[in-house]
């Protein structure tokens, strides 16, 4: 995937860009920014962007805090959501924004819940250069919580694999 934004910017599905104040657990900028087409970040003034690390710690389990706010990764094959096959929606465990439909979930064999598409406007992406190669990291568009990485080795129709940390999600039956 082509990376067009710097480490301090996040490209949202639907085109809006967000300024980040070092998204790894720090409070993000609340100033609304726009993309090249002038689309504003609809979550820029969200209360979720202003929570402190202490407030996040009070709200989240330690594993969820480490993934969502510190961009950690849970161990593969540990999430009960790997075996979830019900009809419903997967939400951000931080702010409860709906991110994925169960209709896009598939078993990638990787040990993490995987999806071939996200709900419109639910995610933002940016390059992740923590390893030898560049990956595409994605976050919840509302609270900027780290979810996982997206790869171009998924099934049709998109060819994408959103590889999500299960601890960063909740599932709600339809």
Describe the protein.
- The chain is mostly beta strands and 174 residues long.
- The protein has one domain: Peptide methionine sulfoxide reductase (Metal Binding Protein, Guanine Nucleotide Exchange Factor, Chain A, Beta Complex), CATH 2.170.150.20.
- The protein is 9% helix and 27% strand.
- Strand 8 and strand 9 form a beta hairpin.
- The protein is globular, with a radius of gyration of 15 Å.
- Overall residue-averaged pLDDT value: 82
The spatial strand order of the largest sheet comes to 2-1-7-8-9-10-6-5
CATH architecture: Beta Complex
CATH superfamily caption = Peptide methionine sulfoxide reductase
The total number of structural domains is 1
Gyration radius over CA: 15 Å
* Residue fraction in strands: 25-35%
The CATH topology is what? Metal Binding Protein, Guanine Nucleotide Exchange Factor, Chain A
Major sheet attributes = 8 strands, antiparallel
Can you tell me the residue ranges where pLDDT is under 50 for at least 5 consecutive residues? Answer: 1-37
Instruction: Briefly note the structural class of the backbone.
Output: mainly beta
H/E order of the elements? EEHHEEEEEEEEE
**Count of β-strands:** 11
So what's the overall shape? Answer: globular
Top CATH class: Mainly Beta
Domain MsrB: 53-174
GO biological process, one term: response to oxidative stress
Enzyme class: oxidoreductase
EC number: 1.8.4.12
